[in-house]
Amino acid sequence: MIRRRLLPAVLLAGLALAALAAQAGVMTRATLQRHFPPPWTVGEKDAQLPVWPIFKQDMTSPVLAGYVFESIDLAPIPGFSGTPINLLVALDPKGAFLDVRVLSHHEPVFLEGLGEGPLFRFAEQYKGLSLRQNIKIGSNANRSEQHGSANVYIDGVARATASVRILHQSLLASALRVARARLGFAAGSDPALLARVRRDGFRPMDWDALMQAGLVQRVRLSRGQVERAFAGTGVEEAGGAGENFDETFIELYLAYLNAPAVGRNLLSEAGWQHLLGRIDEGDHALLAIATGRYTFVGDSFVRGAVPDRLTLRQGDLPLELRDLDLDDPLRLPTALRRADAKVFRVIGPAGLDPARPLDFALRVTREKGMLYGERVSRDFALPYRLPADQVIAPESDAKGWQAVWRTRAWELAVLAGALALLAVVLARPRWIVATPGRLARFRTGYLVFTLVFIGWFAQGQLSIVHITAAIQALVAGRPLAFLLYDPMSVALWAFVALTLVVWGRGTFCGWLCPFGALQELAAQIARRAGLRKHLRPHRDLDARLKRLKYAVLAVVLVLAAVSPAWTDRAVEVEPFKTAITLNFVRAWPFVAWAGGLVLLNLVLYKGFCRYLCPLGAGLKLLGHARLLKWIPRRAECGTPCQTCRHRCEYQAIKPDGAIVYGECFQCLDCVAIHDSPQRCAPLIARGRQRVIPVHAAAAVRSAA
């Protein structure tokens, strides 16, 4: 009894430790010092955030050079195997990447597939780039077309799109957390999702035209508005709002100065170029001009500082305004030439979106009491919004899974059409099975499409890896959103889930598995070349061999829950990655295994699919939810007719004629036989029974 209770406890403890280990960093200060040797020095680990400061000697004193951290401590986003990719990342104080290295990963395509070299080279591309830039995965060939934008393109890795995008997401998510916590970046939106100010469409405009176009906006506070806000506080001015009620307290003009329609009209050409040289790509220059008895900077304000009276928010996001200390003269109306004018900068990583309203606020503070002075403050909203025709909406979330789906829209459309066709054929097979030749041509054509388009081109091979990845993510308490980075697989899984309920396992195994298609096409070629028929194990031996795949499935699933490293090895029982994902370009043991299974198929028809495939075993178990017995049967099937059973290459028909749907690959051969008057023995017998009376009647007439 004690052992029975102890075993589950030990198993649960092991799962918990595996989950914790999957999310914990591995670096120590000593190991980091080896990564950053002198003149670098690694400081003590931060107590609040899992980062280490790194210093560099400058003359006689050390200077903060940045922060180094592991991505798994800050953004443990599951990779395609279900286990997070762990990166070593170093950021300088301005948000530039000093170094990016892959510490560990379990990405199937890079483990004994493409090799780790392409993954390491992909990560190295980030060195020297900055969080201030909008980094996109694409091709360096189109960088020249992006002149003047904040986009920076890095090369992806063919056949590993999902894995490198997850690495990209892990890097940016973890780096932005550090930048916001330690480098002063505000907790804003992802830079890729922000609108941009238009750089075109400039036309000469004077001050009045800028005001009418809404490019310069005026906000006025009267003395009466201010006094009403302070009513009852004890700091009202003498006379209250009754005197000079409409007197201007402050008149504020706000403008987005680095919009060309504003800046090029209010500055000289030299001043405009000077402004652009003072701000980084993605930064925002905001102009504020004040007249009246109050202003937005106090008496203690110094050039280059943050104003103590004027603040800016966007939604719940506070944004820092810092004086740009710009001396270039502005082209203002005569009445404003002596006004208090300042140009403030908001850095790009702060997350300001120029397409959304800017909520400026003016703080007015008054004091009361002589000995124990008390301050009373009120904030007055000063809204501003750049006209919609001056901004460009973000094209897409280039870092998220949505962008992957958009870029592969045409592939998904082709797949959707093919799946719809297959659904129609399986639901109404009569026309396709009307003649053996028609069925053979359609099936061969569809299998070629599955192998070439779904498999080799679109990389849509479903695999047990999808299931083990989901298990590992759930064990570690992580979401399953990483699966969305492979849209072809998601679409196929959705269709397979639906057809499992309707028809069973065979829809995928018989029609949509690229490796299964490769085996069947190879068998067709061998048959035409004169190879003898396949071996056909006795039904008892066949039944025992078909149980092997459940043992393989059980081993893989248990390892997925307790050991990511051993899971990476166990899933290699599937030849899918070698034959489909990597086109047999791989180390010889894997090529020998995949090639051997294709050759085995020439002798023992689809031996892997029937006896070893863990994915097939899982689909068969799930296929018990099937609702329909859709393959037609007659009373004579099995007794006395055995035609379909003898013709079934999958040995999925019992001696009594019943279909074993869990082992049926839905090739439609038995459906074609069932409907054929020339091939179905019961139909042939009935035809003869009809013919005999006709001949007898003719003989009687002849004798008469």
Set out the fold topology.
Blueprint (H helix, E strand, L loop, with lengths): L1 H22 L5 H7 L4 E3 L8 E8 L2 E10 H4 L11 E6 L5 E8 L12 H8 L9 E5 L12 E5 L5 H22 L13 E2 L9 H6 L3 E7 H7 L18 E9 L3 H7 L2 H10 L5 E8 L18 E5 L2 E3 L2 E2 L16 E7 L11 E11 L5 E11 L6 E2 L8 H7 L1 H19 L8 H22 L6 H12 L11 H16 L3 H7 L1 H15 L10 H7 L2 H15 L1 H7 L5 H6 L6 H16 L3 H5 L2 H9 L20 H5 L21 H6 L6 H23 L1
Parallel strand pairs: 6-7
Antiparallel strand pairs: 1-2, 2-3, 3-4, 4-5, 8-18, 9-10, 10-11, 11-15, 12-13, 12-16, 14-15, 16-17
Helix pairs in contact: 11-14, 12-16, 13-18, 14-15, 16-21, 18-19, 18-23
What would you note in describing this structure?
With 704 residues, this protein is α+β, with helices and mostly antiparallel strands. It has three domains: 157 residues, no CATH class; 186 residues, no CATH class; 222 residues, no CATH class. Helices cover 41% and strands 16% of the residues. Strands 1-2-3-4-5 form a five-stranded antiparallel β-sheet. A hairpin with a 5-residue loop joins strand 16 and strand 17. Helix 18 packs antiparallel against helix 19 and helix 18 packs across helix 23. It is elongated. The N terminus is likely disordered.
